[in-house]
Design goal:
Length: about 220
């Protein structure tokens, strides 16, 4: 059942004009969600937004908010993003002391729950607890910055997550984030990803709406 998930495109506003966030979200209104990269300058060497920004973008109502938390102390910090109105909250496995307890707490608060893996983090520790999550985010760059190159070496990890979800009969979304573009999206889709974060590919395009459509069509053509 997991292989039938529709393709979804989540542009990342990390690459948007921060002085015009509301308009920048409107620019991607044809996407499926807006990906908000929360960075604390500790888990990653960059600092962006917090729960207040998530709350305001959620209240704007243009798109559901997909909050990607690149922050330490996820157990303590993540619930505030569910309370802020994020449709999904993704925390990093490396930053959570008790990922199952945290996932259940976030579900109780009414949000979808994702768990993210840095490139050097293996997926195997998750395989027996996939049913706790709605989404696994396989990072295809080292988290922290937009505009980096897609790590081809992550394709087998995407395949392993997809296969594990299928064999456990878990309806899981597999998200990829980092270096997703017209050049790389087909391979990620073939490997089993269904949800694609694209920052610079969308925000550096002259026509963001056309870019979203092109990415969605390419991914859909390579899903199987
Ligand atoms: C990186 C972020 C990404 C980033 C992607 O740490 O998690 O969401 O914005 O940007 P691109 O698509 O330019 O790699
Ligand atoms: Zn991200």
């Amino acid at each position: 059942m997991s292989t039938t998930r529709p393709v979804t495109i989540h542009p990342s506003i990390l690459n948007a004009d921060f002085l015009r966030i509301g308009a920048e979200v409107e620019r991607i209104a044809g996407a499926d969600a807006v990906h908000v990269d929360v960075m604390d300058n500790h888990f990653v060497p960059n600092l962006t937004f917090g729960a207040t920004m998530v709350e305001q973008i959620a209240r704007q109502g243009t798109l559901p908010v997909d909050a990607h938390l690149m922050i330490e102390n996820a157990d303590r910090e993540a619930p505030a993003y569910a309370e802020a109105g994020a449709a999904s909250v993704t925390f990093h496995l490396e930053a959570a002391a008790a990922p199952i307890r945290l996932a259940r707490e976030l579900h109780r608060l009414g949000t979808r729950v994702g768990v993210a893996l840095r490139p050097a983090t293996p997926v195997e520790p998750l395989l027996d607890i996939l049913g706790e999550f709605d989404m696994v985010l396989v990072m295809t760059v080292e988290p922290g910055f937009g505009g980096q190159s897609f790590l081809e070496g992550m394709l087998p990890k995407i395949q392993r997550v997809r296969q594990a979800a299928a064999s456990a009969d878990v309806d899981l979304s597999v998200q990829v984030d980092g270096g997703v573009s017209r050049e790389t999206i087909a391979r990620a889709a073939e490997a089993g990803a269904d949800c694609f974060v694209a920052g610079s590919a969308v925000y550096r395009a002259d026509d963001a709406a056309a870019e979203i459509t092109a990415l969605r069509d390419l991914a859909a053509a390579h899903r199987h």
